[in-house]
Amino acid sequence: MDRIAALQFFPVHSRRRKIYKSLLVFLARMNLDRIFFPRVKKIQFPDGFDFEQWLDEVRQLTGHREMDAVVVWPPPARCEARVYIHLFDGSHRVAFAKISFSEYNHRKLANAVDILTRIAREDRYDFKVVDMIHFGQFQDHQYLLLQPLPEKSSPMTHSWQWVESNLLNTFAGPRRLLPWSEIEQQPWWRQYMENINPDSPFHRELIQLMGDSAAVRRVHGDFSPHNMILSDGKVWLFDWEEYSDAGPCRTDEIRFELALRMKPILASPARQAELFAQRHGRGRDPAWPDAMLALAFLHGARVMEARALIDHWKD
Fold first, then answer.
1. Bridge partners of residue 100, in order along the sequence
2. Is residue 140 classed as helix, strand or coil in its secondary structure?
3. Nearest by Cα to 299 from 248, 263, 264
4. Distances from the Cα of 262 to the Cαs of 24, 48, 145, in angstroms?
């Protein structure tokens, strides 16, 4: 399929993305897009993975024999060894697919499948999630097919206070104390420890602050406005790969905050690390250890804003 036709399936959930899409379409029509976006390369799938054969399997599975695909290569800092794909038949959106090419991403997809299944079964929340079509394996690689998000949608513009009271609290449930010995067994903590320098200023301070237990609750894990949309008066939440039954109690709050401050954090991480500490009462607020533990969770989840703050942490 040609690039201009494929761009019609670029999801637009904000004014900025709408402008970006219009620019891409214009440049593609003028055959200038490869000049202005030279980093775009042909996707290299792992050796032995036959994309066309996979697509044929999905065509049979969905019953759309003429289905085509637009492949999206995610940012490498966040999504190593994973591919996102929009699937469509003519002008009809059929599904959104994620293919994993590593054990790390296999675990993430399985985690998302688990919580999406539970949410569908519980059916009691004030938000919506996309339905799963299929979770399968092809040539030793896992893939997940999801229903497409609603086409008519708008970005989330609500404040944290509204989001917390109307969406999060009923889902996350009450906070509970988990012994530190059990915290150390949580997948998110092991993920953090695999990626942190134990001699770093942040980690030293975190360990000094932690007592015999920590407050946890259910967390989405990547609770950012870019993982939420509004459609027909309902909020849709997606990208559940980082979900945890026992994440630090302030994880989703801190993730929401970092997403809103992404530009200044990435532009001036040392200064923003100081401001983060001031806002959250470093050394004086009893909730400060919970904020640090939330940052640790997000660092392990490869959230670039959290990693930037922690990398520039000072004693």
1. 82
2. coil
3. 248
4. 24, 38, 30
Here the tokens at position 250 are 């302030």
Q: What is the pLDDT of residue 29?
A: 75
DSSP 218-278: EE-S---GGGEEEETTEEEE---TT-EEEEETTHHHHHHHHHHTHHHHHHSHHHHHHHHHH
What would the two tokens of residue 313 be?
């942490």
Tokens 């989330």 sit at which residue? 156
Question: How much is the pLDDT for 76?
Answer: 44
Dihedral sign computed on CA atoms, order 113, 79, 16, 95: negative
Q: Nearest-CA neighbor of 172 among 130, 220, 128?
A: 220
Provide the pLDDT for residue 82. Answer: 86
How far apart CA 157 and CA 288 sit, in angstroms, is 27
Q: Which two tokens stand for residue 210?
A: 């932690």
Segment holding 239, helix H or strand E? none
Residues of the chain with pLDDT under 70: 1-18, 20, 28, 32-43, 73-80
- The encoded tokens of residue 203 equal 């980690």
pLDDT, residue 128, reads 93
Tell me how far apart the alpha carbons of residues 259 and 255 are, in angstroms, rounded to a whole number: 6
pTM for this structure?
0.88
Instruction: Compute the distance between CA of residue 116 and CA of residue 220 in angstroms, rounded to an integer.
Output: 11
Tell me which residue of 221, 217, 206, 219 sits closest to 289, measured CA to CA: 206
Which two tokens mark 284?
């004086």
CATH of domain 41-146: 3.30.200
**Nearest residue to 310 via CA among 188, 168, 151, 201:** 201
Q: 274: burial class by Cβ within 10 Å (0-12, 13-18, 19+)?
A: middle
- Our measurement of the distance from residue 237's CA atom to the centroid of its chain's CA atoms, rounded to an integer in Å, reads 10
**Cα gap 117→195, rounded to integer Å:** 30
Rg value, the chain, Cα:
21
